[in-house]
Write a structure and sequence with these properties.
- Helix 3 crosses helix 8 and helix 5 crosses helix 7.
- The chain is globular and about 55 Å long.
- Helices cover 39% and strands 5% of the residues.
- The protein is mainly alpha-helical.
- The protein is built from 9 helices and 4 strands; from the N terminus they run H-E-H-H-E-H-E-H-H-H-H-E-H.
- Strands 1-4 form a two-stranded antiparallel sheet. It has a two-stranded antiparallel ribbon with strand order 2-3.
């Protein structure tokens, strides 16, 4: 609900949500491992995670369009700016001017690990299709962002959404509705917590 309301508040599409999802009756630190995409993963690894949960590549590209708002910490992409490899200081997938701006912005990131940059440098507080337009210009902040434009499996959808914001909004909304009912717990397999950070038995 919080994600939905934020997206709508900054100009994005609305979508239906079924309320009453139950929380798990157990929680382990190891549970999220290999369940969520990380900025250090290859696109094939990211696709594998999405497809394992029943999402197509098109749905994946639509959902990642949420990067049109939000921030990423410098430690998630700084390796693309400093000593990228033996042949290049900067990841050549970056637009040179964009990379220069990022280097200037994060020159002191080792002293302040909380520093971050907007995922979308052009319209960071507006939910629109600028994220996809940025990918065409070499302005994908994370490795996984740039990879979506470089990979033939995902690029057609990047191009489609860059050209048609209405289509992006439609597909994003449908994918979010599908995500909201992923692995819903039924019967005695979950509970609606009175506090989101602890089990109900701990609150009594």
């Amino acid at each position: 609900m919080a994600a939905h309301d934020l997206i709508v508040a900054v100009g994005g599409p609305t979508f239906d949500l079924r309320l009453g999802r139950k929380d798990s009756l157990e929680s382990k630190a190891t549970d999220p491992e290999n369940q969520f995409p990380l900025p250090t993963m290859s696109l094939s690894e990211v696709i594998k995670i999405f497809t394992s949960k029943g999402f197509s590549i098109q749905e994946m590209v639509a959902l990642v369009g949420a990067h049109t708002i939000g921030l990423s910490h410098f430690n998630q992409f700084s390796h693309r700016l400093f000593n990228f490899n033996k042949n290049s200081e900067i990841d050549p997938a970056y637009n040179p001017d964009y990379a220069a701006g990022l280097k200037k912005l994060c020159q002191n990131y080792t002293k302040d690990p909380s520093m971050s940059a907007f995922n979308d440098a052009i319209t960071p507080t507006k939910f629109d299709n600028m994220y996809y337009k940025n990918l065409r210009k070499g302005m994908g902040l994370l490795v996984t962002d740039s990879a979506m434009f470089d990979d033939s499996r995902s690029r057609p959808f990047v191009d489609r959404y860059a050209d048609d914001e209405k289509k992006f909004f439609q597909d994003f909304a449908r994918a979010m509705e599908k995500l909201s009912v992923l692995q819903v717990k039924t019967e005695g397999k979950g509970e609606v917590r009175s506090r989101c950070d602890s089990f109900n038995t701990l609150n009594n």
